[in-house]
From TrEMBL:
GO function terms (MF aspect): proton-transporting ATP synthase activity, rotational mechanism
Family: Belongs to the ATPase A chain family.
Self-association and partners: Component of the ATP synthase complex composed at least of ATP5F1A/subunit alpha, ATP5F1B/subunit beta, ATP5MC1/subunit c (homooctomer), MT-ATP6/subunit a, MT-ATP8/subunit 8, ATP5ME/subunit e, ATP5MF/subunit f, ATP5MG/subunit g, ATP5MK/subunit k, ATP5MJ/subunit j, ATP5F1C/subunit gamma, ATP5F1D/subunit delta, ATP5F1E/subunit epsilon, ATP5PF/subunit F6, ATP5PB/subunit b, ATP5PD/subunit d, ATP5PO/subunit OSCP.
Name by which UniProt lists this protein: ATP synthase subunit a
Pfam (any one): ATP-synt_A
Membrane-spanning ranges: 12-31, 69-89, 101-118, 138-159, 171-199, 205-223
Stored PROSITE patterns: ATPASE_A
Protein species of origin: Oreoleuciscus potanini (Altai osman)
Gene Ontology cellular component list: mitochondrial inner membrane; proton-transporting ATP synthase complex
Record's subcellular location: Mitochondrion inner membrane
Chief location: mitochondrion
Length: 227
């Protein structure tokens, strides 16, 4: 039973071919394409409004130099939100429950922010490793600690997204299994458990959107430190 709970996180395959590529490419197919008409449809209007709101919130703490990243960060956030939401549907696979995929997003983008800081303002970038006014005996220790915390950032990004989505999916499956087991024996308890399951599903919808927003927001904050 415990093995079957974690089977949902295994990458599906068909004829020996992993289908994770299909799961990653599918969200882009679902987005409506702009039409040549003078007025857009309601769906495109809502999508544009939400994207503009998210982008303005992300770019607010950044200066003008960081606005070049607006398209990349907004696209990443929409992509993560769509994948996380599709993963809540029955009989679907959530690619963002794989730590390797999340690290593939986190490490290159974090490394790009560090390289930008070292290229544009190396003194300020290295100055983050040693706070001003540090006593001389503590300088080596603080440099080591700040360096470790710097390299932990991409790991924290990937693990946070993976852990939150994995925990939510496991909890939903555990409670859903309890509902099916309790239904023939204790219908009243099963109905109450199903109510909890419904509320948990609503919570997971919020978590799917919030975690994608937090992932991109932290990247934007890392970018702000280096521009």
């Amino acid at each position: 039973m415990m093995v079957s709970f974690f089977d949902q996180f295994a990458s599906p395959s068909f004829l020996g071919i992993p289908l994770i590529a299909v799961a990653i490419a599918l969200p882009w197919v679902l987005f409506p394409t702009p039409s040549s008409r003078w007025t857009n449809s309601r769906l495109i209007t809502v999508q544009t409004w939400l994207t503009n709101r998210f982008t303005s919130q992300l770019m607010m703490p950044l200066n003008v130099g960081g606005h070049k990243w607006a398209l990349l960060l907004a696209s990443l956030m929409v992509f993560l939100i769509t994948i996380n939401m599709l993963g809540l549907l029955p009989y679907t696979f959530t690619p963002t429950t794989q730590l390797s995929l999340n690290m593939g997003f986190a490490v290159p983008l974090w490394l790009a922010t560090v390289i930008i800081g070292m290229r544009n303002q190396p003194t300020v970038a290295l100055g983050h490793l040693l706070p001003e006014g540090t006593p001389v005996p503590l300088i080596p220790v603080l440099i080591i600690m700040e360096t470790i915390s710097l390299f932990i950032r991409p790991l924290a990004l990937g693990v946070r997204l993976t852990a939150n989505l994995t925990a939510g999916h496991l909890l939903i499956q555990l409670i859903a299994t309890a509902v099916f087991v309790l239904m023939p024996m204790m219908p009243v308890v099963a109905i109450l458990t199903a109510t909890v399951l419904f509320l948990l599903t609503l919570l997971e919808v919020a978590v799917a959107m919030i975690q994608a927003y937090v992932f991109v927001l932290l990247l934007s904050l890392y970018l702000q430190e280096n521009i």
